[in-house]
Amino acid sequence: MKQKTDRIRTGPVKMIMLVAALLVLIAYGTLSVTAQDPFWFLKGFRYRPTLIVIYHHEGKRTELRPGDPGFAELTEAIQTCLADGAERPSGIGFSDASLLDAYSRYLSVEVFFDQPVKLHAWFDTGAPTQMLFPITGRHAELSVVLLGQNGKYLSSPPALKTLAPIRETLQSLGYYE
Length: 177
Hints:
Elements: H1 12-35, E1 51-56, E2 60-64, H2 71-83, E3 86-89, H3 96-104, E4 108-112, E5 130-134, E6 146-149, E7 152-153, E8 158-160, H4 164-172
Antiparallel strand pairs: 1-2, 1-4, 3-8, 4-5, 5-6, 6-7
């Protein structure tokens, strides 16, 4: 006499799909934890700065606020660069001397936000309230954006895909040749 057993049979195709789904979930979870951002894969940057400071022409400083000429154009250029996303952590650090040079010798753009913002990337970018874009000088060729809070910048700033929109806007505003 044969005994009937109630067994659930899983075919090889279902098993492969289950394992594949599990691997995708593990990879997504690992990147989400590493990046401290469950939406690390998204592109876009919608935050608007409250203040933009342009350091130019050997130490001159120009502040732009909402409503000032050039503020809207520069804000759009900054958002475009950040919306394309970060390619990788740069692995470099800016010393105090490099920061001083960015403020006093080279063309740089510093942006301030009234709340912490999120730059989506596959690595942790923190929650900065300020960003510094070196346009000329040290590390400008890497298209990095320094991320910081309370006047302090983190090491290993993200390398962006391009800073061309910011450069073009600065050129049209007369800050860059």
